[in-house]
Amino acid sequence: MTAQNITNNLILASKARLADNNLIPRLGLGVKRRLECWKTIEEAKDQGLIRSIGVSNYGESYIKELLDFSFKHKPVANQCDLHSFMARSDLVEYCLSQDITLEIPKSVSEQGIIENAHVFGFELDEQDVEQLDRLDVYLVTE
User: Fold this and answer.
1) Measured distance CA(39)–CA(32) in Å, rounded
2) Ranges for the NADP-dependent oxidoreductase domain (predicted)?
3) Count of beta carbons in the 10 Å neighbourhood of residue 112
4) Where are the domains of the chain?
Protein backbone atom coordinates (compact mmCIF):
# COMPACT_ATOMS: atom_id res chain seq x y z
CA MET A 1 0.00 0.00 0.00
CA THR A 2 1.62 3.23 -1.16
CA ALA A 3 0.49 6.82 -0.82
CA GLN A 4 -0.17 6.93 -4.57
CA ASN A 5 -2.30 3.75 -4.45
CA ILE A 6 -4.34 5.17 -1.58
CA THR A 7 -4.85 8.49 -3.37
CA ASN A 8 -5.84 6.82 -6.65
CA ASN A 9 -8.32 4.52 -4.90
CA LEU A 10 -9.86 7.40 -2.96
CA ILE A 11 -10.26 9.52 -6.08
CA LEU A 12 -12.03 6.63 -7.83
CA ALA A 13 -14.24 5.98 -4.81
CA SER A 14 -15.16 9.65 -4.43
CA LYS A 15 -16.23 9.81 -8.08
CA ALA A 16 -18.52 6.86 -7.39
CA ARG A 17 -19.63 8.48 -4.10
CA LEU A 18 -18.44 5.46 -2.11
CA ALA A 19 -16.01 7.06 0.33
CA ASP A 20 -17.90 7.94 3.51
CA ASN A 21 -15.48 6.28 5.90
CA ASN A 22 -12.07 4.95 5.01
CA LEU A 23 -10.59 2.30 7.31
CA ILE A 24 -6.86 1.65 7.31
CA PRO A 25 -6.29 -2.06 7.96
CA ARG A 26 -3.53 -3.43 10.14
CA LEU A 27 -1.51 -4.89 7.30
CA GLY A 28 1.71 -5.79 9.07
CA LEU A 29 3.29 -2.62 7.72
CA GLY A 30 6.10 -1.04 9.69
CA VAL A 31 5.45 2.06 11.76
CA LYS A 32 6.80 4.38 9.05
CA ARG A 33 4.43 2.99 6.39
CA ARG A 34 1.43 3.04 8.75
CA LEU A 35 2.07 6.70 9.55
CA GLU A 36 2.56 7.55 5.86
CA CYS A 37 -0.77 5.86 5.08
CA TRP A 38 -2.47 7.88 7.83
CA LYS A 39 -0.99 11.16 6.54
CA THR A 40 -2.19 10.36 3.01
CA ILE A 41 -5.70 9.55 4.24
CA GLU A 42 -5.75 12.80 6.24
CA GLU A 43 -4.89 14.74 3.10
CA ALA A 44 -7.76 13.01 1.29
CA LYS A 45 -10.11 14.01 4.11
CA ASP A 46 -8.89 17.61 3.96
CA GLN A 47 -9.56 17.59 0.20
CA GLY A 48 -13.11 16.36 0.80
CA LEU A 49 -12.55 12.96 -0.81
CA ILE A 50 -13.73 11.14 2.32
CA ARG A 51 -15.84 12.16 5.31
CA SER A 52 -14.15 10.27 8.13
CA ILE A 53 -11.12 8.13 8.86
CA GLY A 54 -10.91 4.98 10.91
CA VAL A 55 -8.79 1.92 11.41
CA SER A 56 -9.39 -1.80 11.17
CA ASN A 57 -8.05 -4.41 13.58
CA TYR A 58 -5.83 -1.94 15.43
CA GLY A 59 -4.80 -2.84 18.96
CA GLU A 60 -4.24 -0.23 21.64
CA SER A 61 -0.54 0.19 20.83
CA TYR A 62 -1.24 0.94 17.14
CA ILE A 63 -3.90 3.50 18.06
CA LYS A 64 -1.56 5.15 20.58
CA GLU A 65 1.05 5.29 17.84
CA LEU A 66 -1.30 7.41 15.70
CA LEU A 67 -2.38 9.61 18.58
CA ASP A 68 1.23 10.18 19.71
CA PHE A 69 2.11 11.67 16.34
CA SER A 70 -0.49 14.43 16.79
CA PHE A 71 -2.03 14.16 13.37
CA LYS A 72 -4.84 16.59 12.48
CA HIS A 73 -7.49 13.87 12.62
CA LYS A 74 -7.79 10.94 14.96
CA PRO A 75 -9.53 7.69 14.07
CA VAL A 76 -13.30 7.92 14.51
CA ALA A 77 -13.74 4.15 14.45
CA ASN A 78 -11.87 0.90 14.96
CA GLN A 79 -13.50 -2.01 13.16
CA CYS A 80 -12.56 -5.29 14.81
CA ASP A 81 -13.96 -8.64 15.85
CA LEU A 82 -15.63 -8.49 19.24
CA HIS A 83 -17.61 -11.41 20.59
CA SER A 84 -17.92 -13.66 23.61
CA PHE A 85 -14.73 -15.56 22.78
CA MET A 86 -12.77 -12.37 22.09
CA ALA A 87 -14.15 -9.61 24.31
CA ARG A 88 -11.01 -7.41 24.19
CA SER A 89 -12.20 -5.43 27.21
CA ASP A 90 -8.94 -3.45 27.50
CA LEU A 91 -9.23 -2.33 23.88
CA VAL A 92 -12.92 -1.50 24.32
CA GLU A 93 -12.18 0.63 27.39
CA TYR A 94 -9.27 2.37 25.66
CA CYS A 95 -11.25 3.20 22.51
CA LEU A 96 -14.15 4.51 24.57
CA SER A 97 -11.76 6.69 26.61
CA GLN A 98 -10.42 8.16 23.33
CA ASP A 99 -13.90 8.69 21.84
CA ILE A 100 -13.20 6.10 19.13
CA THR A 101 -16.24 4.08 18.11
CA LEU A 102 -15.85 0.33 17.97
CA GLU A 103 -17.65 -1.32 15.11
CA ILE A 104 -17.86 -4.96 14.25
CA PRO A 105 -17.64 -6.15 10.65
CA LYS A 106 -20.96 -6.12 8.86
CA SER A 107 -22.94 -9.13 7.80
CA VAL A 108 -22.57 -9.78 4.11
CA SER A 109 -25.43 -12.18 3.52
CA GLU A 110 -29.04 -11.06 3.34
CA GLN A 111 -30.04 -13.86 5.73
CA GLY A 112 -27.42 -12.75 8.28
CA ILE A 113 -28.70 -9.18 8.17
CA ILE A 114 -32.29 -10.34 8.70
CA GLU A 115 -31.28 -12.59 11.61
CA ASN A 116 -29.27 -9.78 13.22
CA ALA A 117 -32.30 -7.49 13.10
CA HIS A 118 -34.34 -9.99 15.14
CA VAL A 119 -31.97 -10.57 18.05
CA PHE A 120 -34.07 -8.66 20.56
CA GLY A 121 -36.82 -9.97 22.81
CA PHE A 122 -34.72 -11.45 25.61
CA GLU A 123 -32.87 -10.22 28.68
CA LEU A 124 -29.62 -11.30 30.29
CA ASP A 125 -29.39 -11.40 34.05
CA GLU A 126 -26.13 -10.90 35.96
CA GLN A 127 -25.41 -14.64 36.02
CA ASP A 128 -25.83 -14.85 32.22
CA VAL A 129 -23.39 -11.97 31.73
CA GLU A 130 -20.84 -13.59 34.06
CA GLN A 131 -21.08 -16.84 32.08
CA LEU A 132 -20.53 -14.99 28.82
CA ASP A 133 -17.54 -13.14 30.28
CA ARG A 134 -15.92 -16.48 31.16
CA LEU A 135 -16.03 -17.54 27.49
CA ASP A 136 -13.33 -15.03 26.52
CA VAL A 137 -10.23 -16.92 25.39
CA TYR A 138 -8.55 -13.81 23.89
CA LEU A 139 -8.18 -15.07 20.34
CA VAL A 140 -6.28 -11.93 19.31
CA THR A 141 -2.96 -11.82 17.50
CA GLU A 142 -1.22 -8.51 18.07
Assistant:
1) 11
2) 35-101
3) 11
4) 3-133
